[in-house]
Model the fold of this input.
Amino acid sequence: MKSFLNVQDLGDLRQALAEAQEIKANRYKYDTLGKNKTLLMVFFNNSLRTRLSTQKAAMNLGMNVIVLDVNAGAWKLETERGVIMDGDKSEHLLEAIPVMGSYCDVIGIRSFAGLTDREYDYAETVYNQFVQYSGKPVFAMETATVHPLQAFADLITIHDSWMSREKVKVNSEKFPTEQISAEANYSLFPIHSSLRLPKVVLTWAPHPRALPQAVPNSFAQWMLAADVDFVITHPEGYELDPAFTAGATIEYDQKKAFEGADFIYAKNWSCPGVTRPEDYGKVLHDYHKMMHWTVDAEHMSWTNNARFMHCLPVRRNMIVTDEVIEAPTSLVIPEAANREISATVVLKRILQSKGKGNRE
Ligand code: AN0
Ligand code: CP
Done:
């Protein structure tokens, strides 16, 4: 694997989930795979989880790690070609990338959408320059349009939670275990006639600032690939790019969307510029007027005792109330813990792949 951006880069999801379980059972199983290999993590934006979990994943695999915070100590980087560099930026990304590539074997990139130029963001311009000019395998740690390590961790979280809920049901209904595992062989989720696919709802929620679409884009892409019963709900104008959501049910009535849900995945995003190109990256309404979208106990009462999820960081009492995020049905902490698992699987795959551009 030379690049990790989309769900397709991981191939068969059953295999990926099996590898996640293997790592969960023993996260140090491949602790010599990364010997004398160096991971460089490049951050253009802040991070808590991605920074810690990806570094931990690299350490699980015996790698060395270098972290570069571009905006804290490095030269300010120009990212666009053709600019006369007479401003505050001392170096161009096109020199910086091959230089960075010369010191490492794998590169992780965090580079959020600028939210001003849709074409530039949706072309994944910065990420693709790293792919083209670093000479090393590259993976996204949230780029302009995607956050695949998060979506993979979300899938692991949903899968584990659903299978343990369903196992209780299966045992109590005395279905033969072999039948269930045979079915699990060809479906990510058991599809026994009396069982059903989990209903997963991605809901927009209010936020005071303009946030990228990377998390909801990837979440939609991964849920569609996992073939769950998937519904997206948001106010009009926040339609996500169909490149990520084609095949999903869009329900503008949040209450209707929540009915019967097994998982509620909350996230804010700014206008994706699909139905209103001129509003790309904008917050469309004063958030004070949108607080009825905040996930509270009443919202959760519309669901099938749904588990609550959010990628974090989350603003309490904007996105979700204290009560809901603190409830036993909240999965936000195991979800964040699964970031170590998703990153370990992805780095393992990169290290194992042939022609990976490493130095030997
Ligand atoms: C970022 C976002 O919404 O994309 C990172 C989430 C993982 N969140 C914020 O900037 C608050
Ligand atoms: N969920 C996530 O990626 O968190 P950070 O922004 O803290 O890395």
